[in-house]
Amino acid sequence: MGKRLVILGGGESGVGAALLGKKEGYEVVLMDESSLKDVYRNELQKAGIDFLEKEINKERLFSADEVVKSPGIPEKNEWVKALRQKGIAIISEIELAYRHKGNSRIVAITGSNGKSTTTSLIYHICMHAGLDCALVGNIGYSFARQVAEDPKQWYVAEISSFQLDDILTFRPDIAVLLNITEDHLDRYDYQFEKYIRSKFRITINQQPSDHFIYNLDDEVIKNYIERNKINSIQLPISMKQKVEKGGYIKDDQMHVNVSGDEQQMSIYDFALKGKHNQFNTMAASVAGATMDIRKNKIREAVQTFENLEHRMESVATVRGVEFINDSKATNVNSTWYALESMTKPTILVLGGVDKGNDYTLITELVKEKVKAIVCMGLDNKKIHEAFDDVVKVVDTDNASDAVRSSYSLAQPGDIVLLSPACASFDLFKNYEDRGRQFKDAVRDL
């Protein structure tokens, strides 16, 4: 008999893990306390994989040799607690994928903000250079599914702290840590230090031949590195100081140096605009140089990259009012970056499920740049408490009301920015659904 593998959670990562487990000869059963999406149910049936929906079978769960837990399931879940008590190993889907990736190599990107943009840009650089690669993790297919169905030489993986929490041997050849700000603290007992340690798990198994690209200007990251040993080759990136190896920006010029052959490029040639995107572009360029991609290929890729949907995405200009969809901003820091790049008077659309937000982070920018705030959530109390004395705050409870209210508050030359600083689950399926409903409402104006 094969090793008994139970998959907890039937989303993209769970189904990917089930497909890989089956392919590798495990005895697999997938369980989910909710009902599965039709597409996933059909896939499991077609692959002949045993699954249970709307129930967890205690006996089968506890007879597992190993359990792959969906990143969405918290430690405080009763089944997870019971498994821990019984000493049954719990791993994440990226750990399972890592074990079966063969000789392939991994670039893994994490951080509180900018992950998807940087991951996509690194993937774009790799594709432009003709590498055999796939975009996996929190973006695109799950890592396990890609390994099972279409293995590649390189995997460019966006990795969350939740995925890193349950790794044992997962080891990226190149790890990228963009920034660490207070996010998801509800999952880490409201202890920032636990969240920081979780992010740094991306380096935990790295060897002296691996590379670690990190933001030297981030005090949290810098302090952690000063106190803890990192085994891999360190490649810092900075906008404040010159670095020997890694990347830095000085006088609007980006300098990248990994192996003694420096590359320079004007920031005005970057396809991505805004200060935070200069960091993302620098991280991606250093990663490309680490992979021995030619300088001209990195330059061309950085100039031709197109921004992601739901990330500072220009939707339309309606009678002089520009609408921007930044639905992917699910925490206050993301919204800070969005506001920081605004150059015109802004109507800000905020709200959703609050993950312990501290709105004082954006108070100064709101005073400086925002004409009015339009709330789009079921519970907007905290937003009112933070901003009622600063600007006009209006309540709405769906995307089209939010768009109409914003439009009525705006004048030609203004920007309406959807950058919610919150998760979307109170009114929408996810941030993509929120972004699409916002865009549809703008087109209906």
UniProtKB/TrEMBL annotation:
The EC number(s) this enzyme carries: 6.3.2.9
Entry's Gene Ontology BP terms: cell division; cell wall organization; peptidoglycan biosynthetic process; regulation of cell shape
Subcellular location per the Swiss-Prot or TrEMBL entry: Cytoplasm
Domain Mur ligase central: 109-287
Matches recorded under Pfam families: Mur_ligase_C, Mur_ligase_M, MurD-like_N
Residues annotated as domain Mur ligase C-terminal: 310-422
Domain of life: Bacteria
GO cellular component: cytoplasm
Pathway of action: Cell wall biogenesis; peptidoglycan biosynthesis
Family the UniProt entry places it in: Belongs to the MurCDEF family.
Protein name (record): UDP-N-acetylmuramoylalanine--D-glutamate ligase
Gene responsible for this protein: murD
